[in-house]
Each structure stands twice: as C-alpha cells, then as structure tokens.
Amino acid sequence: MLSVVRRPFGLTVMALERPLVGEMACYYLGWDIGAWRTKQKDGLWLLDGDGNSLGKAACGLQQSLADERDLDGFLEFCFGKCLGTEVTPRRGDRVVMAVDAPFGFPKDFRSLLGIDGEGGCSERVDAKAIDIGYLYRGTEQFVEKRMGRIPLSPVIHQIGSQTTKVMHFLCRFLFDSSKEKGVWSVISPGEVEVTVIEVYPATCKTRGGETGGEVDCPEILNDFTGIKSVSGNISDDEEDGLICALLARLFDGNRKAFHEPGDDIDPAEGWIWYPRSCDKSGKSSGSGRC
User: Fold this and answer.
1) Which of 56, 184, 264, 278 is least surrounded, with the fewest CB atoms within 10 Å of its CB?
2) pLDDT digits (tens, 9 = 90+) for 30-65
3) Does some domain include residue 52?
4) Residue 167 lies in a domain
5) Do the bridges between strand 12-16 and strand 2-6 make them parallel or antiparallel, or are there none, so unpaired?
6) Number of domains in the chain
7) Is residue 13 part of a domain?
C-alpha cells in the first residue's frame, strides 16, 4: 500500500505503508535479466498485493548476487533499488517473482554433455532448427507451435549469459522445483515465502525482435497502460520488468490463465508461463526474448 508523504518546499513522494502487525503482505517483482559483465541492465519492477506500482529500477544485480549472504539480503537490495529506500519483506510475507530468462538448457544438449549422468546422442537432428533437441527446450517448441514464434535459444543465441545468471540465482539461494514443475520456491532465512517462475514478455506483445512490440495481452493490458502512463521515462529493461511483474500477479491470482507444463516436459529444462489468451493468429512470427 502507498501513502503520500509531504516534504518541505512542496515536494511530494510516495512511501511504502506496511500492513498492520500480524498482517502479511504480498509483493510481485518482475526481473528482466541482463547479461553478466556487460552494460546491459537488469530491469526491475515492484508491485504490491493490489497491483499498485511501488517502483522500478534499471540496475546491475551482479554484485548483489556475489555479495549477499542470503536471499533476504538480495530481496532487500532489489526492493531498495525500486523504492529508493531500505525496505525488506518481513517474516510471513510472500514475494512472487517472474523472470525473463531461460531457467535451463535443453535435455538433449545436457545429455550430449553427459550432465545428467547418461551421455547420448539425439536421433533427431535432420529437422528444422526448432525441432532439434540440442538447440531448443520443450517449452520453446511448445511456444512455437502455439504462436508461430520462436523464442531465443540459450544454446545458439546470445542469452546463455542470462540463463546461467538466473540458474546461479536459483542455485545460490536454494530454490526447489521438485514440488511443482516449472515453479521454484523457497522459504528464506527470514521466513519470507518466495516463488519464482519463468516468463517471456514477447508472448504478450504484437511482434517480436529486438525492438519489442505493443502489449496486447488482455489480462494485463489495462494495468500495463495505466502504470506506464504515470511512471515517467521507462527504459526497455524496466518495461519488460513491468510485464514480468504483472504476469507474476496474474499467475498468483489465476493460474488457469496460463499454459501449464505437460508430462512430456523435462523439469530440468524449465517452463515458460504465458497466458492462453496470447495464442493469437494475429501475432506475427519471429524470434526475440523481448
């Protein structure tokens, strides 16, 4: 919840108003991941439980991933960047994060390297690129079949850096996905319940590619337009962070709005959660993890 705080000289700022003692808060954090050691920023956007925008940031999280001793410290850093003040979730609060980056590598690619303990070659290599298991995960093949859009591959495109970055995050802070395919969760040392999912903002846009497109996902369109209109200058990374945050809230409130992973999906590959309403014939083909 936000409250208006009056400052001297007529300056008005918005401050985070904490729930009453005993009440638990929920936050939605969108994270558009930037690569390691580049000028590309991590785009963050933070919403409260009612979907109100609490803040945004385009910053580098690499140092925080290296320095923070636990997940609580990392969340405090992210919240601080978005809010411009030191605020951290309290014991019993929930944080749902939606992240724009692949959460794993293709099963056949891992098998080829012997990563899963059993080395082996794929029998299907004389096929379109999207159907070659070394190159694309099952979730990316699913998106292509439903939308005619080919997501970027962590193997053949320049997003391997982002993939290892989110995998490092999940590993370092001991997230577990064994309870539910495609959903990573953990209780932080400070007893904050944190859930993380993979999303793909381009599925909510009219076209892909480097320049992105116009958001046309009906479940988030009004909130996206309203928040963006009052948020001043927004970088591309922050805009995708906002889409991620809105998808996190939609996921938390209406899981059935999303395509869910089937039995044929390898849990270690990860899963792109995207709304069923985005299966539109009007969405043009093309690649791009926007």
Assistant:
1) 264
2) 999 999 987 789 999 999 999 999 999 999 999 999
3) yes
4) yes
5) antiparallel
6) 1
7) no
Owning domain of residue 98: 26-287
What confidence tens digit (pLDDT) does each residue in 153-206 have? 999 988 999 999 999 999 999 999 999 999 999 999 999 999 999 999 999 998
Give the mean pLDDT of 105-121. 82
